[in-house]
């Protein structure tokens, strides 16, 4: 089935960035279609209390914040669809989006499909996300006040998280699965020199303890060199093992960096071989490996929607 109607704009992703874009595009009467994708609500939907989003002095639960944004976007005519993108043809104009069951044509596309945190994928870890397991030190560090915690990873993200978390935690144990650290020497040295950070190498997490209590009680660890198991009593586990940008479906059609993030020109325009792709804009974590905050993603969604408006106006809409 092919839907012959050409949309003014389609927004890929329903996280903070996509929904902010939808609010702005909706208010401009563009009737945006938001494709919710495989992680509806994005990373906020798996967070608990968000205390640093301006306007909520007591904080707000991540899923509630997302729900509010959805309602706000729908109030201005945004259409939310649980569909996800199978493939896109950006060489065609209007742009063609294959949603599996049908094709959607659109004059503009905002890619706000985000980056998913990489998890260990242990059942116990997944059960405790938001209850002492977190992939965002900036978001949840505050809740680790006075506690002994663990950070998993050996790259710059893990070092940065560990250093940041020393502001709150009484002790940070950094656990790396090998003896080799991927982090840049300066970050590694800084973390190693910190008196509150202890390093454990050649070690993997086998289980996060506390599933029954719905609260992290410790980690069951295994030394990969000796096979010896041990228990590390911590109340929080932060993952710092990287993110996976959700832009795989645009490979070959768009300039991406070596890790698959969109290389957005002037923060918002997508390019192929350095040339701007007509009508295709990027917003949020899909092009931001640095800040990754709800508020920066929201701001970026706003920017993309304003660019869409300008683009449509310049192209006679
Ligand atoms: P990296 O890919 O650099 O590092 C990921 C780390 O996680 C590695 O130590 C890796 O181990 C480990 N890891 C991956 N999967 C698992 C797993 N399943 N179990 C246990 N450990 C795992 O990601 P980062 O997010 O740290 O950095 C990404 C990029 O962003 C880098 O280029 C980095 O320099 C940059 N960055 C820069 C910062 C800064 O300059 N302030 C801050 C943050 C990031 P292994 O080595 O064994 O694969």
Automatic annotation (TrEMBL):
Top-level taxon in the UniProt lineage: Bacteria
Molecular function via GO: thioredoxin-disulfide reductase (NADPH) activity
EC number: 1.8.1.9
Gene3D superfamilies documented for this protein: FAD/NAD(P)-binding domain (3.50.50.60)
Enzyme class: oxidoreductase
NCBIfam families attached to this UniProt entry: TRX_reduct (TIGR01292)
Record's subunit section: Homodimer.
Family indicated by similarity: Belongs to the class-II pyridine nucleotide-disulfide oxidoreductase family.
Record-given protein name: Thioredoxin reductase
